[in-house]
Amino acid sequence: MDILRRLFIVSLLFLPLLLYAGDAVNINTADKETLMVAIKGVGEKRAEAIIAYRNQHGPFRSVDELSHVSGIGQAIVDANRDSLTVSEQE
Fold first, then answer.
1. Alpha-carbon distance 62 to 67, whole Å?
2. Which residue intervals of 1-90 are DSSP H helices?
3. What does the buried/exposed string (b/e) look like for 15-50 if buried means 16 or more CB atoms within 10 Å of the residue's CB?
4. Are 8 and 29 in contact (CB under 8 A)?
5. Is the full-model pTM beyond 0.85?
6. How many domains does the chain have?
7. Distances (CA, A) of 23 to 39, 66, 68
8. Domain that includes residue 44, residue range
9. CA–CA separation, 68 vs 59, rounded Å?
10. Do the domain assignments include residue 90?
11. Residue 71 belongs to some domain of the structure
12. Ordered mean pLDDT values, 10 residues apiece, the chain (90 residues)
């Protein structure tokens, strides 16, 4: 039973990855957990910084604008560019 519980927990952890596989993540609408899972190099603090920047400055106009967020450098933007969008469509 312990093995089944562990498998269930692991599957819950990977569910966001499966949901977003192949789909670009909208950095204007994604929540903290989605940002953490979808953007390589972004953990809890950086995800919170993205949301705070978005709340303070309004929606991102381009993926490149993500580099204006404290703690997010151009290397992170470049590494994740293909999986991110600022599209108004979900």
1. 10
2. 2-20, 32-38, 44-57, 74-80
3. eeeeeeeeebbbbeebeeebbbbbbeebeeebbebb
4. no
5. no
6. 1
7. 12, 18, 24
8. 2-85
9. 13
10. no
11. yes
12. 75 60 86 95 97 96 96 95 81
